[in-house]
Amino acid sequence: MPDLSELEISRRTILATSAASVVMASIPSAGAQVRQPMQTDPAPLPVHFEVNGQARELTLDARTTLLDALREHLHLTGTKKGCDHGQCGACTVMVDGVRINSCLSLAVMHQGDKITTIEGLGTPDHLHPMQAAFIKHDGYQCGYCTPGQICSAVAVLDEIKRGVPSHAQADLNEPARATNVEMRERMSGNICRCGAYSNIAEAMAEVAGESA
Amino acid sequence: MKAFTYERATDPVAAARSVASRPGAKFIAGGTNLLDLMKLQVETPTHLVDVQDLSLDKIEDTPDGGLRIGALVTNTNLAADPRVKKNYAVLSRSIVAGASGQLRNKASTAGNLLQRTRCPYFYDTNMACNKREPGLGCAAIGGASRQLGVIGVSDKCIATFPGDMAVAMRVLDAVIETVDADGQCRSIPIADFHRLWGDTPENDTTLRPGELITAVTLPPPLGGKHFYEKVRDRASYAYALVSVAAVIQPDGTGRVAFGGVAPKPWRLAEAEALLPQGAAAVTARAFEGATPTAENAFKLPLATRALAFVIAEAKG
């Protein structure tokens, strides 16, 4: 990143020079004032976590989200940045077995966590059953939301198995089933601009072993 | 996002001391609301105290037959707890009516109580907002106010408390437990936790600087039928226009609180005493003195109809 304080000093110097002789003595102190905030920026922090079974160590500005750590620092670009505000679900990954929005979580808060991204679910040669079902049922068009949809879909079926309740359940104390209505409700945090929802629900139904 | 320093606290009192001693410091748990606001520079903390290691993630039975919910219990784990599903169904129902699966997996019990308003003028730093910047004025008054408050608001701020979980907790008479920098513990009934805006809309709650929520306790179960009826623009993943949390007993008496209408979960003892007389009687009393705008006046009949639906379901 360019040092903006240096650019600022250059501009001031040019202005001062073109205005001729006058305030040269004040330039160093003006420059020092501009630079000070840069020097007090907090030091980057070390963090280690496991991504797709592999131990990773990074030193990051505390502001770095888990999403940016994955994409920009570890170059795992399967996870996508959509809205960057937790509204679209494109950044969905699994942390210690549960799905979260990686855009709304600081990387430094994941010390020791086990993270699974779309790259950890399957590979082109060994697709995860959910990836294969998305292909079979045409569960995408442009594909941008798809990694988040697939991570979320895998997690949803696990949540149903574990008895996590949903708004679609008539009776909270009965086990939920992977019905179409259930999956639509549970997938509402994943937006698809192309509108592949019905095919996504069919892909999920196939993996769950129920008809959509 | 503005730069900040970060620490991971290991002890609740030390965490409280750290926040109390630094102007601009904040606690962070799930971070789902705070980080969203930090990206927009609506929130600009200079120091974050991460409380995730404080072992406040258990749900325990209390000696009197209630439940003590640790501040860090996630929304998902709270809604999924078999005791909550069976005995406090209104709470499970309210939680699964809110946010998305991903957010509920990260959002904490304490953080949910502390979530900030979703007023669009609070979120937009180019607009006047007394809550974001006291004294700046309120662009929502006379602005797009369809989602905003109809009662308990002031001429400084017409925002609502946006949550669902707290509306159910209000019906259940939950108590919020805190600890401060001196190690002093406090129990705050949820009725006294969220504030009406008055002249100081910048303060959402009655918490003191650096005071840390450690748990929320629920009194013994109420029995009855539990409902959380939420009316919103989409079938899922949208804030309430109006919500109704209710526990109705077989004789038609019960408790009711409304969400999406005020700076806090809206419950009046005198209003819910009228439940046996029907929805219109309850809402006439609960919303007496309401000051809706032309855009959100629909919330008043909507509240009556949502409650009428709940009462009909309870009889069915």
Can you tell me about this structure?
The complex is a heterodimer of chains A (212) and B (316). Chain A has 8 helices and 5 strands, in the order ααββαβββααααα. Chain A is an alpha+beta fold and 212 residues long. In chain A, a hairpin with a 2-residue loop joins strand 1 and strand 2. With 316 residues, chain B is α+β, with helices and mostly antiparallel strands. Chain B has 12 helices and 11 strands. In chain B, the strands form 3 sheets. Chain B has a 5-stranded antiparallel sheet with strand order 4-5-8-6-7. A 3-stranded parallel sheet of chain B has the order 1-3-2, with helices on one face. A 3-stranded antiparallel sheet of chain B has the order 9-10-11, sandwiched between helices. In chain B, helix 5 runs antiparallel to helix 9 and helix 11 packs antiparallel against helix 12. Chain B is globular and about 55 Å long. The mean pLDDT of chain B is 98. Chains A and B meet through strand 4, helix 6 and helix 7 of A and strand 1, helix 2, helix 3, helix 4 and helix 5 of B.
Kindly list the characteristics that best describe this protein.
heterodimer; A: 212 residues; alpha+beta; 5-stranded mixed sheet; 12% strand; disordered N terminus; B: 316 residues; 11 strands; 18% strand; globular
Order of helices and strands of chain B: EHEHEEEHHHHHHHEEEEEEHHH
**Mean of pLDDT of chain A:** 87
Please give the number of β-strands of chain B. 11
The largest sheet of chain A has its strands arranged as 2-1-5-3-4
Strand content bin of chain B:
15-25%
Unreliable residue stretches of chain B? none
Number of helices of chain B: 12
Major beta sheet summary of chain A: 5 strands, mixed
Which protein chains are joined by the largest interface, and how many residues does each one contribute?
A-B, 42 and 37 residues
Helix tally of chain A equals 8
Helix/strand-derived class of chain A?
alpha+beta
Based on Cα principal axes, name the global outline of chain A: globular
Model regions low in confidence, pLDDT < 50 over at least 5 residues of chain A: 1-36
Cα end-to-end separation of chain B: 52 Å
In which range does the helix fraction of chain B lie?
25-40%
